[in-house]
């Protein structure tokens, strides 16, 4: 499904990072090791690399990664791209200073929970999780994301999943988004920034 979605020449979600990352990037120090989960066509990973971060990114769609590599080359940055299904990623291979997930709600809740557990393991003590996705009311907006509200985030759900972390930011809000043809219009969003205890 995703390889087909990314098969065209255009960048489905554009080439600029999510506004969430622009807002929160000051929390990341230059040279920090960052993992971007289910990166897609590279817009977030490439931008983060341009901010001086050491970025690893993974995605299961070869077409998406081909575009991501082209975008990185065009911007003159280096990203370590890996072809991997999110469910098969080795979360214990390396401890990252930050693990980032932007609109990764495509799986059923049980799989999402497994992914969030992996993300928690992959971040070093004192490191950050940055998560940005859709709130449950997004299903009625028709501007992107899964059609099943059960796949969306709520503040209570994220607070429970990251109960052992220090919550630095957790917000549920509506905003206008213009991210390629994939995300356009009014959107219901949830942001989380959480620090793993040192």
From TrEMBL:
It comes from Rhodovulum euryhalinum. Transmembrane segments: none annotated. Residues 34-127 form the Methyltransferase domain. The keyword Transferase applies. The lineage of its organism: Bacteria, Pseudomonadati, Pseudomonadota, Alphaproteobacteria, Rhodobacterales. It comes from the Bacteria. This is Methyltransferase family protein. GO terms for biological process: methylation. The keyword Methyltransferase applies. Keywords: Methyltransferase, Transferase. Gene3D superfamilies: Vaccinia Virus protein VP39. Coiled coil: none annotated. InterPro entries: Methyltransf_25, SAM-dependent_MTases_sf. One of its GO terms (molecular function) is methyltransferase activity.
